[in-house]
Amino acid sequence: MSAVAAAPSAMPKEGTPVVLVRGVSLEREGQEVLRDVDLSVERGEILGIVGPNGGGKTSLLRLMLGLERPTSGEIELFGEPVARFREWYRIAYIPQHAIAFDPHFPASVREVVLLGRVARRGPLHWLGTEDREATRRAIELCGLSGLEGRRVGALSGGEKQRVFIAKAIAARPDLLVMDEPTAGVDPESERRFYDLISQLRGELGLTVILVSHDLGVVSARVDRVACLNRTLVYHGPAGALEDKELLGRLYGAGRIIIAHGADESPVHGH
User: How many domains does the chain have?
Assistant: First the structure.
C-alpha cells in the first residue's frame, strides 16, 4: 500500500507536547464536570482516554479542540495556547456516532473522503489534482480500494469507520482525535481499526488521542492512558489497566469490570 505523504508543517519545538493540559477544571450550570486535570500528549504517541460514563472524557476532548473554554487552567496545542491556535487543519476530529450515516444520503466513498481536503484547503479553494491524489492514497491506505463509488450509507459499520478515518487523513493532519471510534462495530472491525491506527502512526507520524470503553483492547494497543473520572485518576503506561486497585479507584468500589481478554475481545467498565 502507498502511504499518504505528510504535508510540511511547522513542527513543535523539540520536547514540546502536542497537547498540554494544566490545572484544567470545567463547570456547567454550577455542576463540576472536570477538576484540576493535568496531562500531556507527546508527539507520535497513541493516548487512550478511559473512564466511566459521565466522567468527563468527551468534555476533555472538547476543551482540547477549543470547542469549549475551561473554567480554569490552561491548554496548549503544539506549544500555543488553544485560544490563539489557528492551524486547525493540523488536527482531525472524528466524533461519536460518525458511522451513523443516513443510508439514503447519496454520497460515495470518494466524495466523502475528498471532503477531508476542504479542511486542509478551505471551502473557497478549488480542489485539484493534488487533492484527488491525496484522496486516492488515503482510500488505498485505509483498505477501501474498490469501494470508491459505493454509497457510504450502504457500507458495513467497519467500512464506514475506515471511510471517516480516510477522510481525516486526506487532510494530512498531525493529530487525530477520535471519540468512541469502535462503538457499534464487531470485534474483527475493532481489531482492524487498531491495526490501521498503528500503521498510520508508523507511516505518517500521527499523534492519536482516542476515547474508549474497551479497557482490555486499549491496554494492549495504546502507549499511555489517561484514566478520567472528573479528576485524573491515572496518567501513564497502558499496562496499568490490569491493576484491579486502579480500576476500583476509577470506576468505584463494587463496580463490575468485565474482562474478556486483550487480544480481540473488549473489556468494559460497568
Answer: 1
Q: Whole-model pTM?
A: 0.84
Strands 46-50 and 224-229: parallel
Residue 133 falls within a domain, yes or no?
no
DSSP state at residue 106: -
Alpha helices in the chain, H assignment, sequence order: 57-64, 109-121, 129-141, 157-170, 187-204, 215-221, 244-251
139: exposed, middle or buried (Cβ count in 10 Å: 0-12, 13-18, 19+) = buried
Q: What is the CA radius of gyration of the chain?
A: 18
For residue 80, the domain's CATH number is 3.40.50.300
Alpha helices in 21-146 (DSSP H): 57-64, 109-121, 129-141
Q: Are 175 and 93 in contact, with CB atoms under 8 Å apart?
A: no
CB atoms within 10 A of CB 85: 17
Q: pLDDT tens digits for 61-118?
A: 999 999 999 999 999 999 999 999 999 999 999 988 776 667 777 899 999 999 998 8
